[in-house]
Amino acid sequence: MRTHYKAWAKPFLDEHLEISIPLDEIPNLKDFYLEIGSGKGEFLIKMAEKFPDRYFVGIEKNVTCAGITAKKMVEKEVKNAKLIYADASQILPLFKEKSIKTIFLNFSDPWPKKRHHKRRLTSDLFLKQYLRVLPKGGKLIFKTDNIDLFNDSLEYFENSEFKLVSKTNNYLGEDEFDTMTEYEEFFRNEGTPINRVIYER
Ligand SMILES: C[S@@+](CC[C@H](N)C(=O)[O-])C[C@H]1O[C@@H](n2cnc3c(N)ncnc32)[C@H](O)[C@@H]1O
Known about the structure:
Blueprint: H1 9-15, E1 32-36, H2 42-50, E2 56-60, H3 63-76, E3 81-85, H4 88-91, E4 100-106, H5 124-133, E5 139-144, H6 147-158, E6 163-168, H7 182-190, E7 195-200
Parallel strand pairs: 1-2, 1-4, 2-3, 4-5
Antiparallel strand pairs: 5-7, 6-7
Helix pairs in contact: 1-3
The protein binds S-adenosylmethionine (SAM).
């Protein structure tokens, strides 16, 4: 699913700083829900609408995806979600220790080539960052269509301090604290099984 570059995206993000968080305020955030790689914002916005008492933050590094999300947030006047247009590796160190309730990784890029594995959002350097920002009992929820990424990621988690809570190779969307993402909808329509795992710190 290619996202064609939209020249309006960056100017729109620059004009609508209200949907984002200034870098110097990031360390003040606490007790929120984070989606890394939020794409066009489907999950972020639907979760914010479904759970108006909770606060959601998305991080997205692709300018067009971030711009599309920002446009939806402005149109829908979303109050309890923010979007950070940046690479997560730059932002994660800014969050306060133990400040995040749950991290969602939805259909993360698979980076199939071995030399690119360290870019995966489930690679050990990222897991170390997640462990720092999650409190004891804080959760990481990962879903993907990609079985190779899923199986490799199970190994990465096994070699970390994360504790397995649940795992399925045929997630049907039954968790109330969840909603379908854009990629998920595509793969479900194709009949591709969805893998999902929940870990706890
Ligand atoms: C395959 S898409 C999935 C989008 C969405 N989560 C969904 O399920 O529909 C993965 C997204 O993660 C973003 N991404 C990948 N690595 C990232 C990083 N290090 N920081 C921020 N965003 C990232 C990509 O730009 C892309 O938009």
